[in-house]
Input
Amino acid sequence: MTSARDIAARGPLIPVLTIADPAHAAPLAEALLAGGVTVLEVTLRTPAALEAIAEIVRTCPAATVGAGTIRDAGQLAAAIGAGAAFGVSPGTTARLADAARESGIPFLPGAATVSEAMALAERGFEVVKFFPAEAAGGAATLKAWHAPLPDLRFCPTGGVTGDNAGDYLTLANVACVGGSWIAPAGRVAAADWAGITGLARAASEELARLRPG
Ligand code: 3PG
Output
């Protein structure tokens, strides 16, 4: 069975996508794949999000597509129904955590404090979304968390860019990084697929430099 750690390792750059037009889903996924990015998070922030996930599942088998910005159990169920391979939440409620564990889907629950991260570890989660990463102290915070929380791995998102992704990716407790900089909503809305492939390729090349092999 695929775990959250598997999903993170398959990334480990995860574009956080906001898709307003379902017709953009397949070309966007293809543009990211062409740039070497295969794990995609479609945020449930638009009415088109579930249809976009289903469309990517249907047309782009090389992509691993998950749902982000999941805030409750109903959204989790809808995402799984659309074919999402994993789920991500910005923070975590007890009900959502229970639903995620029961679903069996790889899930990266959100936390911004040590106590929240500990509560998630207690429930069996292995990879936690650190959100909002830059506003919550950035790479220095995650570095400080490694000694007291040695077994937890993190996916920092929120303010991560091509300029600071390396600060995170070189930390021992960072499994993957997420962010919208690889496919900004404006470029998606403008159908700038070549531009998005260029951003994805640049991010992939930087990743290969930081984590060779
Ligand atoms: C998320 O949900 O992970 C964030 O909104 C992404 O943040 P970013 O736009 O700052 O990358």
Observations:
- Residues 16 and 179 are 5 Å apart (CA to CA).
- The chain has a mean pLDDT of 96.
